[in-house]
Amino acid sequence: MTLPTQSPAIVLDKVSHFYGQGALRKQILFDICAEIRTGEIIIVTGPSGSGKTTALTLVGALRSAQEGSVRVLDQELHGAGAKTLERIRKSIGYIFQSHNLLDALTASQNVQMSLLLHEGSSRRKLRQRAIEMLEAVGLAEHVDRYPDQLSGGQRQRVAIARALVSHPRIILADEPTASLDKQSGRDVVDRMQELARQQGVTVLLVTHDNRILDIADRIFHLEDGRLVSFTNAVISNTRHMMSMLAQNQRKGDLVNQVRDMPAAQFTELLQHVTQEAEEFLKVIEMSENDAFQSMLEQFLEAFTLKIGQILDADRSSVFLVDHEKEQLSLKIAEEQDGKPVDIRIPIQTGIAGYVARTGQTLNIPDAYKEPHFNPDADKQTGYRTRSVLCVPIKNHEGHVFAVAQLLNKKADGRPFPLEDEERFREFMKPIGVILESWWRMSRGEVGEPQPSVSRPQATP
Ligand code: ADP
Ligand code: MG
Are 439 and 413 in contact (CB under 8 A)? Predict the structure, then answer.
């Protein structure tokens, strides 16, 4: 099915904004450019005072644009008349930090209010629609309660129902979870995401709350009124992994850093990094992929090599599986004489190929006695392979998309024990999460709405 190309829901072009007059005039936004597709969920982060609310109110036609172009639903807002602004406002659902419900009205009446602005249906119909929407946000039991009879989370869900009931095409939410506890905050954004997906609504959501970033298709980061680059954005957001990576742009630094880390600390780091990676890898801006990919590549290299070191292997490597081309390509390996290795292997041959095809782990004491072994790589590189431990890495659908391999257990040339096999599989599970995201990104799949990346199972 081909979808008609839709114009973007929101386009900002060189938007600047100023507050104050004369000597007090102060620039708040600087040349903001952004394009948001219909149905995208965008999260806007940034420190307090960085201009998030200002940007949101400009998009929401609640404030006049001063400089640059603000196009919303194919309407230019800069210089637009009152009628146009009003029409645009009717296509937008607003959710603010404080829910702004009317205390004198019940939940259902608060939601009906937003419908009254739009059309002249019968009272009974309006109430029916309000109740349906309250049911959709999980408040079926509470439709006739007043705001002070509801918890903070429930009130915020009423506000969401109110914003959504008139089927807005855009939702603007300014820190909607700020006054909520963790669970209520989660509930609120989950509902918002679900409804947005069902109705194809575009969502622009300002938040400080790192725990909800995973609902975003992309994250925009504002710093002193400027949209900052992806790298800086992730550094601001992920304290750990990304800053570590970014500070180690020079190839090899990260490898060294991880090399001297005790195994237990490394395991902890790996878990931490995986959590952050899960949240972040699917929400990055396409345009900044290059920097990110190179960081990720270093990460994978450092971690794969570290795992090899922990398990006393002489070599460790990861192959990506291309089922269409029926080949494996070597992604991570020790460099040979400082030269990057570019090795491609047909999926029909070799130990890694066998693992890729079958999804089974192979633990081989002596490669040259193993029928699946293909000695070509040894011939090319002059290496002498003895023991091999090779495990599949599966994606969240259970397909093998990569293969990790350890060569030559160092201790006395003995094979890898069963215990190594299990630890290797454990280590490769989180690596698999990261690798899958990376792979999707390199194929340009990131940026589209994704099913959430679950931990792949490495067990055969
Ligand atoms: P954020 O939502 O990121 O905290 P805001 O957009 O609210 O940031 O504010 C950005 C900057 O503009 C801040 O320095 C704030 O003090 C200033 N500001 C916000 N609203 C006004 C206003 N109405 N008049 C003057 N300055 C304002
Ligand atoms: Mg604000």
Answer: no
**DSSP code string of 37-96:** -TT-EEEEE--TTSSHHHHHHHHTTSS---EEEEEETTEE-TT--HHHHHHHHHTEEEE-
Q: Measured in angstroms, how far is the CA atom of residue 136 from the centroid of ligand 2?
A: 28
- Cβ-Cβ contacts under 8 Å for 306 (sequence gap 6 or more): 258, 259, 261, 266
State if residue 47 touches ligand 1 by the CB under 6 angstroms criterion.
no
For residue 107, pLDDT beyond 80: yes
Give CA–CA dist 175/274, Å, rounded.
Answer: 26
CB atoms within 5 A of ion ligand 2 belong to: 53
CA distance 53 to 222: 11
Instruction: Judge if the beta carbon of residue 54 lies within 6 A of ligand 1.
Output: yes
What is the dihedral sign for C-alpha 222, 218, 13, 70? negative
The answer to whether residue 361 scores a pLDDT higher than 70 is yes
Cβ(28) – ligand 1 distance below 6 Å: yes
Average pLDDT over residues 128-155: 91
> What count of other Cβ atoms lies within 10 Å of the Cβ of residue 2?
4
The answer, yes or no, to whether any atom of ligand 1 lies below 6 A from the CB of 52, is yes
Angstrom distances, CA of residue 429 to CA of 104, 118, 245, 292? 54, 51, 20, 21
Which atom of ligand 1 is found nearest the CA of 174? 2
User: What does the alpha-carbon distance between residue 48 and residue 454 come to, in Å, rounded to a whole number?
Assistant: 33
Residue 2 in contact with ligand 1 by CB distance below 6 A: no
Distance 170 CA to ligand 2 centre (A): 19
Half-sphere exposure of 287 (CA within 13 A, CB side): 9
Question: Which ligand 1 atom sits closest to the C-alpha of 46?
Answer: 3
More confident residue, 439 or 136: 136
Tell me which residue of 63, 75, 11 sits closest to 37, measured CA to CA.
Answer: 11
Q: pTM to 2 decimals?
A: 0.57
Instruction: Choose which residue among 52, 54, 57 to substitute to test ligand 1 binding: the one with the highest number of ligand atoms within 8 A of its C-beta.
Output: 54
Residue in 353, 325, 330, 352 with CA at minimum distance from that of residue 341: 330
Encoding tokens for residue 330? Answer: 């070597």
Give me the DSSP letters along 152-217.
HHHHHHHHHHHHHTT--SEEEEESTTTTS-HHHHHHHHHHHHHHHHHHT-EEEEE---GGGGGG-S
What's the CA-to-centroid distance between 256 and ligand 1, angstroms?
Answer: 44
